[in-house]
Amino acid sequence: MAKQTVKRKKLTFRNVALTTGAIIIIAGSATVASRTVPKGEEVTAVMDGDSFKIANDQTIRLSSLDAPDIKYCYGKEAAEALTKKILGKKVILTDLKTDRYGRIMAMAYVKGTSVNEYMIKNGFALHLWDTSILKKELSNANDFAREHRLGIFSPECYQIEPPNPKCTIKGSIIQSTKEKEYTMPECPRYALTVIEKYKGEEWFCTEIEAKKAGFTKSPNCK
């Protein structure tokens, strides 16, 4: 009986790409691994100066900063600036985490530019204490906006002297407790009290007006 000869084709993998997650492995004489570049998330809506939605309807909040509420000084401008910067565009989200309220926090980038830094440096948001990799850059951006009196640090939003000489009572908000208190011109530390209108602080003409707004007299005045 004649022996049958079985020819086996030699398989080569020179042009075969095996994909595992975000890693692409190119097989051949030498194995090469390269990480794919994320394409980003499309921004579908902007709520205010530090919050937006992506295509899956997930709300993202810019980390390490706080933009004014829409109703406060420079709130509308901040929302408009963020809208112009990212709406309808792809953003790369990094350093994702949740805050104590369960919100998704992130650093966002558009075409390699940090959106967080952009908002702070142009006075659209206040830099908050953080431990991110951009901590130094964001701190410097905040200093720049303050030194140049931009946005929330402009005379419109950051005031020591009353715009109206008849309304000299300072209504302040203690950020740690959210308690509202007002300070009279004759009270100690009055000259050192700054009205940051982008935080919801304001001026009053009378004590009655301040009390109606929910402010109580500062303990420093007693």
Features:
222 residues, alpha+beta, OB fold (Dihydrolipoamide Acetyltransferase, E2P), five-stranded mixed beta barrel, 17% helix, 31% strand, elongated, disordered N terminus
Describe this structure in words.
The protein has 222 residues and is an alpha+beta fold. It has four helices and 17 strands. It has helices spanning 75-86, 115-121, 135-147, 207-212; strands spanning 17-20, 23-26, 32-35, 41-46, 51-54, 59-62, 65-66, 90-98, 104-110, 113-114, 126-127, 158-159, 169-174, 179-183, 195-196, 202-204, 216-217. The strands form five sheets. Strands 4-5-6-9-8 form a five-stranded mixed β-barrel. The chain has a four-stranded mixed β-sheet with strand order 16-13-14-17. A hairpin with a 4-residue loop joins strand 5 and strand 6 (59-62). Helix 2 (115-121) packs parallel to helix 3.
> Could you say how many structural domains there are in total?
2
| CATH fold group of the largest domain | OB fold (Dihydrolipoamide Acetyltransferase, E2P)
Low-pLDDT parts are 1-37
Beta-strand portion reads 25-35%
The counted number of beta strands is 17
CATH structural class of the largest domain: Mainly Beta
Q: Which percent bin holds the helix content?
A: 10-25%
Q: Strand order, biggest sheet? A: 4-5-6-9-8
Taking all Cα atoms into account, the compactness measure Rg is 27 Å
Structural class: alpha+beta
First-to-last CA distance: 117 Å
The succession of helices and strands, N to C, reads: EEEEEEEHEEEHEHEEEEEHE
- The tally of helices reads 4
Mass-distribution shape: elongated
